[in-house]
Specification:
single chain, alpha+beta, Arc Repressor Mutant, subunit A, 2 domains, five-stranded antiparallel beta sheet
């Protein structure tokens, strides 16, 4: 019997990507809106943001995403209480299944947040344009792009959308099957520990305290965090603190000394060193850069 090939359908096909932005705002930022002939989604990574569309006004909190169909008007502004960090991705796709995303605010699952992280990582491999410029309308490719990076970027974005449709419609998919998350048990442990770290963000924790209070051995704790996040748990906790510090800076209610004390640092000097080590700039430089982006004139239609 001769072998015969099987043709597989592509039910969701992304033709091109327009922009990938990942940026941070002050708590008084306001973008007065636009409409364009391609898809876009806005996802709040931290903080909260308000979005106005042709269909109404929505408040998005951490992990929530809203999709805008082609030619749908949409705005974005900070809520005035918390300074948001936002991911915005726009792309061309005319697959009929995209109708699923119209007029929806959805929550990202842990797996989808992981896929989104891979999208951002591959975007950094592909583009020389800064992703923290929300007014950039044309991204420039790097001269030397790693092999397969452009293809992976498209594939990851398609995977993200397919995963969301299947999860939300339960179309031949069981979340308990672990099809997309083979380390589900490890992810659950990490999620519990991260929740513990969030509750103790103002303290100076040691690995011994984290292990004891979460009933897990030191070695196992380090192993699962290195597998999931490519760093140890203390480094992860430090990153959480600095991310929180950035949000507090953007909210502009505390000075740097107060933020340092609030987050349990022994001195403003140690806080500043940690901040620069992880963000590449001092707290003052960060505050200035965010203010400049937030106050940049808008020339978009």
């Amino acid at each position: 019997m001769a072998y015969q090939s099987v043709s597989l359908e592509r039910e969701l096909f992304i033709k091109s990507i327009y922009t990938i932005h990942y940026y941070e705002y002050q708590n008084d930022f306001y973008f007065d809106g636009e409409r364009h002939d391609f898809w876009e989604f806005q996802c709040v990574d931290t903080g909260a943001a308000e979005v106005v569309t042709d269909n109404g006004c929505y408040t998005l909190s951490r992990g929530q995403v809203i999709f805008h169909r082609p030619n749908e008007f949409h705005t974005l502004k900070a809520t005035g209480r918390t300074a948001p960090r936002v991911v915005v991705i726009s792309f061309a796709c005319d697959s009929p299944c995209m109708k699923f995303f119209e007029n929806k605010v959805l929550n990202f699952s842990d797996t989808e947040r992981s896929i989104l992280g891979r999208i951002i990582a591959e975007a950094r491999n592909c583009f020389s344009s800064p992703m923290d410029d929300p007014y950039l309308e044309q991204m420039k490719k790097k001269e030397n792009i790693p092999f397969g990076a452009q293809q992976l970027l498209i594939l990851y974005l398609e995977e993200l959308l397919i995963h969301m449709i299947r999860r939300c419609t339960n179309s031949h998919y069981s979340a308990s099957a672990g099809i997309y998350d083979p380390c589900q048990t490890t992810s659950d442990v990490c999620r519990e520990i991260i929740h513990y770290l969030e509750q103790h963000i103002r303290e100076s924790l040691t690995i011994q305290e984290i292990s004891k209070n979460n009933m897990i051995g030191h070695s196992q704790l380090q192993k699962i965090f290195r597998e999931e996040y490519q760093c140890g748990v203390i480094e992860f906790f430090t990153r959480m603190k600095i991310d929180f510090a950035k949000q507090l800076i953007r909210e502009n209610d505390m000075n740097f000394t107060q933020i340092s004390d609030f987050l349990g640092y022994s001195s403003i000097h140690y806080f500043s060193r940690q901040f620069k080590k992880l963000s590449g700039m001092t707290p003052t430089e960060y505050a200035t850069s965010i203010k400049a982006i937030s106050e940049r004139p808008q020339n978009r239609n």
